[in-house]
Amino acid sequence: GALWMCIVLNPHCKLEQKVSWLTQLKKWNGVDVCPWEDGNHGNELPNLTNALPPGANANQENMGQCKFLEYQHLPAHKFLEEGESYLTLAVEVALIGLGQQRIMPDGLYAQEKVCRNEEQLISKLQEVELDDTLVKIFRKQAVFLLEAGPYSGLGEVIHRDSVPMHTFAKYLFTCLLPHDAELAYKSALRAMRLLVLESMAPLGDTSRPHHIASVVPNRYPRWFTLSHIESQQCELASTMLTAAKGDVQRLETVLESIQKNIHSSSHIFKLAQDAFKIATLMDSLPDITLLKVSLELGLQTVPTAALSLLSSNPALHKL
User: Fold this and answer.
1) For a Cys staple, 306 with which of 45, 137, 296, 298, CB 3.0–4.6 Å?
2) Orientation of helix 108-125 relative to helix 86-99, angle to 10°
3) Residue 205 CA from chain centroid, whole number
4) What domain of life does the native source organism fall in (predicted)?
């Protein structure tokens, strides 16, 4: 599946090369395990998926056809050319599969399957300890996904029915943050969008700048997993707020992203509470900027929520 993405859809690949690879991939598709054959096509490539621990597999139908097979014969750290190993190549294939743009399928079961497969694959990746080589791969793929065209879920333009990247972006953010904070925030902020809600018809007064409008679908099919997706969006925002403590500029950027992309008043209020907890977590003086973020998010929700936040948190009165 990754070969289809990397080679057949490569815009720099010549037509005759595409035809040759298409023939080879169709041949491989007819067997259960990709064989070692046709060295001229790169006999290492068919086995990229064998390098993660046993049981690391994702449904090829809903994970951009990115599939991991159990490795029983290939050592995970066997080095290939230029210091690469099967493990590093497998991780890179996984990042490609997780980051590609794909349309949300119809039906409850299929949509739940998308979420479940993504989380299972990320869970297996979390078992891999990042070294300098893998960090370079994460940085390279993050840059690629941000700059890539319509095949990337983190591209500048995506379809409104694209599967959101919140879960993957949270994982990517935590991996990149210690090594490249700028790239980590850029990736996470790009992933915050939830275009399917922006394509729904708002009801009520929308004249207020940050009005939380009720929305109803103006199209079919329904997103049965929308509640879970919004929760993951909220988790991504909370993760960024936590990491941005003490950085005024980043906190303001994250706040703007929350106000622009999160449409659920309950999740916004939860983020207001999270911001307050983070700001007052230590015994030292509270983070004033985070307290302001907490207050502004609280005021953005229904008035009773803001009053509740103010009454339970005296420190906000000074603001």
Assistant:
1) 298
2) 150
3) 32
4) Eukaryota
DSSP-assigned beta bridge partners for residue 214 = 203
**Which residue, among 128, 60, 62, 59, has the nearest Cα to 92 in the 3D structure?**
128
Express each pLDDT in 133-189 by its tens digit: 999 999 999 999 999 887 899 999 899 999 999 999 999 999 999 999 999 999 999
Q: Quick check: 197 and 203 in contact, CB under 8 A? A: no
What b-and-e string marks burial along 26-53, b requiring 16 or more CB atoms within 10 Å of the CB? eebeeeeebeeeeeebeeeebbbbbbbe
Provide the angle, in degrees to the nearest 10, between the axes of the packed helices 166-176 and 226-243.
20
Q: Cβ-count burial of 120 within 10 angstroms (0-12 exposed, 13-18 middle, 19+ buried)?
A: middle
CA separation, residue 165 to residues 118, 140, 161, 188 (Å): 10, 18, 12, 9
At CA 247, angle to CA 245 and CA 248, rounded to 5? Answer: 110
Closest CA to 197 of 211, 217, 224: 217
For 255, the token pair is 């706040």
Render the burial of 284-319: b for 16+ CB within 10 Å, e for the rest: eebbebbbbbbbbbbbbbeeebbebbeeebeebeee
Among the listed residues 240, 155, 242, the one whose alpha carbon sits nearest the alpha carbon of residue 190:
155
Q: Is the dihedral of CA 274, 277, 281, 284 positive or negative?
A: positive
Of residues 19, 3, 216, 221, the one with CA closest to residue 104: 221
CB count within 10 Å of CB 227 equals 9
d(CA 245, CA 51): 37
* Token pair recorded at residue 263: 């449409």
Tokens of 51: 């390098």
pTM: 0.70
